Amino acid sequence: MKREANMAGGLFSSKRFLLLMIVFLMAGTVLFLTLSQSTVEVNKSTHLQQKVVVGEPKKNAGYLIKDQLPADERITEKPIQRKIEVPVHKPAVRRKDIVDNSGAMLYLQQYRDLFDAKADLSNVDPNKNSTIVKWWQAAAMIDWYIHSPIRYKCENRVAVGNWHICQDSKYTIKPPCLVYSFGINFDFSFDDAMTKLGCEVHSFDPSMDKETHRRENNSTFHNLGLSNTNTDGFLPRKDGYVNKPQVWKMRTLKSVMKELGHEEKVIDVLKIDIEGHEWAVIDNMMETGVFKYVRQFMLEFHLFPDWPVKEDYVNLYQIYTRLREMGFSEYAVGPHPKTLKEDKFNNQGDSEYVNIFFEQNNNLEL
User: Fold this and answer.
1) Computed over its alpha carbons, how large is the radius of gyration of the chain?
2) Does domain 103-355 have CATH number 1.10.10?
3) Element (H or E) spanning 330, and its range?
């Protein structure tokens, strides 16, 4: 009886052991399947990460994962890059000339009365660019600039053709000197006067339909125009200087200096009279840093009835303002007759500047 009980107990123990083994096997199987599934997911994730379309970016910034795109946006050969809106910031002016525009308020009031009589000027501050937001406000500020008090008193102003140079000791123009003159229209009086002074003179005008050549007085004429881009196929608009279709070769000032072997050389006098193209050119000169090589600057600005468009006036005013802040101080101005009617608005003027921040060693970063 005792033996039978022992046998029964042993049988029971064997069954319990077998049952436990089955449970452990089932649990192991479940665990194995779970781990396998996780491995598959990890592999998928790794594979997905390998499909990031990159040029070895850091932290995948600005890029999209190809498999996450809608089917109609997927590509197989070219990378897909998210369009990122980046604010455009002008390079900081290393040294800034403080310009007081308080007197411009009278011009703002006059232009308000003419073009937007109900406008409120209480939030407009002529010393804060951010408050000048309407075309007529910008036009008033530009008008003020051409009529505002001279900011540099030149003690020795000398006529050169229909322009002037300042011969004060700090800015004296004498050989060896380099002069660039953009915009001739067959009037070489300024260029010839600078040649007689002993300077190397380069004259530029693509509208005259003349080939590049060395003139009798040893100055050089270039069938080339000044622009904010380099192109051999510029089509100018028709105006008083262009009455038939023409194709012009245009270069930035930086490119002109490089092509003529004047890279990083001082331009003692730079004259620009290019019938409305000056705005984009000045902006480009600021961006490329060539203004630091200019000792004296002569500019004729233009606001024609149809060009530049009035929507651009605020930006043009900011360009003009930045030029003054960079240290170009007027020693002479010459307003032209103006038309203050919105559909026929026209304002032009001449400004002659010395670069008060000019440094002969060209280490200045404007």
Assistant:
1) 36
2) no
3) strand 328-335
